[in-house]
Amino acid sequence: MHPTRLCNLRCLHCYSSSGPDVAESIPIGVLDQVVHDAAALGYDVLNVSGGEPFLYPELPALLRAARDAGMGTTVTTNAVALNQRRIGLIRGLVDLVAVSLDGDQPTHDRIRDRIGSFDKALAGIRRLTEAGVPVGVVTTLTQGNATQLGDVAEAASASGALLLQVHPLEPEGAANRLMAGERPDAVELAYAAVELGRIAAEHGMAVQLDAVPRTTLSRTPEAFMAAPTAGPLGRWLTPLVVEANGAAVPVSYGFDRRYSLGNVHDRPLSDLAAQWDPEPFRELCRTTWERLVEGRTGPLVPWYGHLVRASRTAVIEPSTPRH
């Protein structure tokens, strides 16, 4: 869920093109209903991103709504705005706060377009851990920072982080204009996988790379929505994304609107899910999966990135409802 695009930074790789002058947001009354409906659809974790979630005034109320609905909660932040007051407001309402850290100090500050943001992020991690809030670190992998993952892990571990997640850069939003040539290739992905294994052993951190082995992709099509799966939406469509303008889309911010469920400003999420025809999306997953399995992809496949790009180019029959 992206409740706002307001942010205190204007990062070069921001997929939602957020910034200090972007006021787009969703009222808490709408999001409270979305959370209730999402839980009824089988979703059990709410991740709040942005924009900068800590600049959304109703963040505590949003997390409380998810808790009341029986959901786990995570928040992704640049940590620049974190202070003891803000941390106190969400303490006890969040299972994990993920802090973005995109390389060593010069690299992070360049991508975040603000000198000092690296040090503020580490200070935010320390404040969170001192308050007893579990912290992870999210690193956007580019062609230039794969060799810096060790530096990130050392700084993050020393500050109290328990998890390091590495997400390959996708040329979406601001990144499409400012970092289009920096998407990692198979070499960077393989290096990151090896480095994460070393980091897990040396620092005792949990690690995650947002790319799957090609063998896993080929053996378990149902895990990639490329084979029929029964049950409620939350069992098979994951993640479901609510953007700051209210659009409910599969998989990722900016997913092609032809596959959108609709807009939560117009109708409740429960209604949107009930009237949504999932077959065009399922067909997109099937054809993308087949292309990747049969083609010459590398040993590690960033599935969601491939799926987002495929959504922009796939042909949908004219009879298919569009939203």
TrEMBL record:
Residues of the Radical SAM core domain: 1-206
Segments spanning the bilayer are: none
UniProt key word ATP-binding: no
For this UniProt entry, the molecular function terms from Gene Ontology, in alphabetical order, are: catalytic activity; iron-sulfur cluster binding; metal ion binding
Matching entries from SUPFAM superfamilies are given as: Radical SAM enzymes
Q: Which UniProt keywords apply?
A: Iron, Iron-sulfur, Metal-binding, S-adenosyl-L-methionine
Does the keyword Iron belong to this entry?
yes
Q: Which Pfam families would you find in this protein's record?
A: Radical_SAM
- Which ranges form a coiled coil? none
What name is this protein filed under? Answer: MoaA/NifB/PqqE/SkfB family radical SAM enzyme
Q: Name its species.
A: Saccharothrix violaceirubra
